[in-house]
Amino acid sequence: MKKRFYITTPIYYPSGNPHIGHAYCTTLCDIFARYKRMRHFDCYFLTGTDEHGLKIEKNAQKEGVTPQEYVDNITSIFTKLWKAMKISNNDFIRTTEERHIKVVQEAFTKMYQNDDIYLGKYEGWYCTPCESFWTETQVGPEHICPDCGRPVEKATEESYFFKTQKYLPELMKWYEGDKVIYPLNRKNEMLNTFIKPGLEDLCVSRTSFSWGVPIRENPKHVAYVWLDALCNYLSALGYGSEHDELYKKYWESEESEIIHVIGADITRFHTIYWPEFLLSLGVRLPDRVFVHGLMMMKDGKMSKSKGNVVSPYPLIEKYGVDAVRYYLVREIIFGQDGQFTPEQFVERINVDLANNIGNLVSRTVSMIQKYFDGKIPSFVENVNEQDKELEILVKSTIESYENKLDDLHITEAIVDVMNLLGRANKYIEESAPWVLAKDPSKTENLKSVMAHLAYIIFVGAKLLEPVLVEKTPLIFDSLGASENERDYSNIFNEHVLDNHEVKKGEVLFPRLDVAKETEYIKGLMGGK
Ligand SMILES: [Zn+2]
């Protein structure tokens, strides 16, 4: 397994304010990056904004500002949100930055000199909001954009084209890797929808608007937004510049695993054109492209026009960043679509965070204070069958958590941890410490129960640390674990808390009034 990672979110298109769908993808990548770093691996995490294109130009015009002023404003909202969500990205790339523009121009020139790009005329069905040309078959008899469902128009322009057939055999070789595109149905979709019917050459320049990266060879053209946007993954690492240490370390080196995390709506660009661009540039291909599902609202896809967008900000303010991060990654199974409902949001906080975690911690701390003067008894293995079974469950949970997270199956990994904590809660009921405490002959048994509970809480907190960034340190405080002891290397060390003093902390996740909070969130979403 590789020990160096480069993980990226798509760069977001700042034509509107960030919503919970953007937050979802960024949180996924953040949890992966934090998890790898927690295990002392090297992980470079990139996000950013895609700031060119017709839509931005038009929006700026409408607001009476320059496109640059327009994107400066919205991008600052994105960066503020990532800060509020405790996103640990190493860099934030903006496609209007000089370091990026140079790379796009350089890439175009290289492809042109390779004879991979030629000047032609494009006639096709154009979707203005998506800035995409579509073929007759793709728009169908209704002439509807296959991505957004809006009507398309016939349009012609002089354009440069990228020869997509040239690198197809190499692309197909890349497709043979069984984990390159996940989930597998996305790969099949690409093969059946785009590749098998005959891949058409891709238009890589535009003359119909000017807010983009000018092509040096022919400055009335700007680079097609996707050629421009995709290059961010290279430009952020200093590709082609004097300072390309990061590029060498995280991209060029085979020791690094390159992972793109994307939404299903941009799979085609990341799994067909992007690898072909890289082949043309003679640059190695990404190791994995993970396609996550989309955050939906009850009445369909989240969209500003439907007024069903929920902003993460007020949720963070009211319920805390951990609740929002946890909800996002717990509610949507990777690769499937998820749905935001206020009821589920409140229930997740109450059932998973307040009960399963918060209650377990506070009950355990109280009992250790009551029965053992606040000192965690030394861990003793195999006191009885029940303890033995619990010890096995802890080990298997850690192993499956690691395997699942390595594969970016974050939701499933978290479910395993929550099941372990659920088991610990049940263990309290089964072993009934309040009964054991009354019988002096059962003291050893009672000690073992407390030591097991403390250790399981330690393990659970450690495994949830990449998600619950604010509250897990408080849990370690309650257990009296020092900074060094919190290190991941102690995860299998059952004696890590022996004789430590517990401390009652604040309520980790206050229980919410379901009716009241559901109403409040509905209000945020525009009433109803
Ligand atoms: Zn469209």
Report on this model:
This protein is of the alpha/beta class and 528 residues long. Helix content is 49%, strand content 13%. The chain has 20 helices and 15 strands. The strands form 4 sheets. It has a 6-stranded parallel sheet, sandwiched between helices. The protein has a 4-stranded antiparallel sheet with strand order 5-4-6-8. β11, α11 and β12 (288-292) form a beta-alpha-beta unit. Zinc ion is lined by residues 127, 129-130, 145, 147-148, 150. The site of zinc ion has 7 residues, from loops.
Q: How big is the Rg?
A: 26 Å
* Distinct ligands, ions and cofactors found in the model: zinc ion
How is the CATH topology of the largest domain named? Rossmann fold
Largest sheet: 6 strands, parallel
What is the SS-derived class?
alpha/beta
